[in-house]
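As noted in the main text, all predictions were made from sequence alone. Below is one such record, for Catechol 2,3-dioxygenase.
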Amino acid sequence: MNFALPHDHVGITVTPENLEPTVRWYADHLGFTVDRRFAAHGTTFVFLTAGDVRIELLSGASVPGRPPVTDVLASMDPQRLHHFCLAVPDLDEAVSHLSDRGVPLCGGPMEISAVGRRIAFVTDNLGTVIELSGPGTRPSGRED
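Prediction:
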């Protein structure tokens, strides 16, 4: 069976007390705006957009958090979504922009010549890992 699967959004669960700080984090650091906000089934939903990218924040009951990610390679757990990726036209500019706003890297920048991209990783205020991917060298056919 073949059918189109266009990407729609990434969903991130948020405790009620972290909903507004998370909306502000994505607005202040990555330029997202609130597209839609509503409540249903005991959950508050906030859709954030930046260009074609949509993030859905889902806020319901509070649950314990994870420890902060400080090393992206040590954060891999094979049983969950690890990160989502945002394409940027200039990785160095994006990293500088985030650094100026107090957002530290937890990985990179690094060249991935096999795919012709340079990447770096940050986390949002909740610890969600976000990959930033920008142009790099052309693919070489080997892994770095």
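The mean pLDDT is 88. Strands lie at 10-14, 33-40, 43-50, 53-59, 84-87, 107-112, 117-123, 129-135. These features were considered when defining construct boundaries for the mutagenesis experiments described in Section 2.9.
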